[in-house]
Amino acid sequence: GQSLEQPSEVTAVEGAIVQINCTYQTSGFYGLSWYQQHDGGAPTFLSYNALDGLEETGRFSSFLSRSDSYGYLLLQELQMKDSASYFCAVRGFQKLVFGTGTRLLVSP
Amino acid sequence: SQTIHQWPATLVQPVGSPLSLECTVEGTSNPNLYWYRQAAGRGLQLLFYSVGIGQISSEVPQNLSASRPQDRQFILSSKKLLLSDSGFYLCAWIRDTTEAFFGQGTRLTVV
Predict the structure, then answer these.
(1) What is the pLDDT of residues B33-59, one digit of tens each?
(2) Which residues contact B16 (CB under 8 A, 6 or more apart)?
(3) Of A48, A87, A96, the CB nearest to B34
């Protein structure tokens, strides 16, 4: 089976940089993805890593190390609207399993 | 473009009543479809997934069942709801094995 662990909560101030870590255990691995979910809404896709290294999409970057079963999401130039929950997810064969989620609180 | 529809948005049901949540996808064929449940402030728990018509895989034994009567339709059901069935139910499909698209979700409260 699959299991993913993330910190439950992270706090930061506007303009700062924050890193959200994700460690996973899986019997089959095709890639690690990240999703953002605002309160009351559905998750939306942010990024995907199939290979080791860093993927950059605007203010967001995602990193993967398959040998360490570890990845992280890096958010730069934080804005108030970034306050949300962030989930990593492992893509296994035919399944997408989500982590426990990290609640990010951005303060002025 | 592809879209995913899920309804209703909110639902209040008494304990012991039946449930039927429907999800349909437009703009794609033979999608892999998923049902997730999210308890308040918690992560997404995978309930069922389907890779084709009539093909259902269950992840967690429980009071729910799923069916896929048509290629782009996925239904979540229960014969008798329990209080513990309350939560936020999300339907999703995955494009190119990478990106998941979610419906708007159904917030179910069992009273």
Answers:
(1) 999 999 888 889 999 999 999 999 998
(2) B80, B81
(3) A96
